Amino acid sequence: MALLAWNVRGLGNKDTVRALKNICFKHKNDIVFLSETKQKRRYLEKIRMRMKMDNAFYVDPVGIAGGLALWWSNDVKLSVLAHDKNFVDTAISINGGDEWFGTFIYAPSYDVEKQDFWERLGTLRGDVNAKWCIMGIRT
């Protein structure tokens, strides 16, 4: 299984889209998480289809800041459990294997928001003793 997490800092640049396409085709990613897309889902859907990713979940940017995109192949069974502007929390199994949790993060950069974010993240699994992968950008 191949996972990609990338703070793309905007997908409006053709060179960034080309680099993303090259990475996805070279590594045959099963799951792609993009943070700071700065784009609405309509534009991101066009790119996703070019990347030949089967499924998607988006958190739209606020104005021209932020934005999250989570793409995955049909080999992945993925359910979104919770989300906000800084994370997408999921339950995942691949090719019928054991279920695990994946939380894809784009942590806030402002100190005033950081503590609340990390506290919320810490409560996602509660007392559940399960496999959990957290990936993304921590500031």
UniProtKB/TrEMBL annotation:
It comes from Hibiscus sabdariffa. It comes from the Eukaryota. PANTHER family: ENDONUCLEASE_EXONUCLEASE_PHOSPHATASE DOMAIN-CONTAINING PROTEIN, RNASE H DOMAIN-CONTAINING PROTEIN. Residues 4-121 form the Endonuclease/exonuclease/phosphatase domain. This is Endonuclease/exonuclease/phosphatase domain-containing protein. InterPro entries: Endo/exonu/phosph_ase_sf, Endo/exonuclease/phosphatase. SUPFAM superfamilies: DNase I-like (SSF56219).
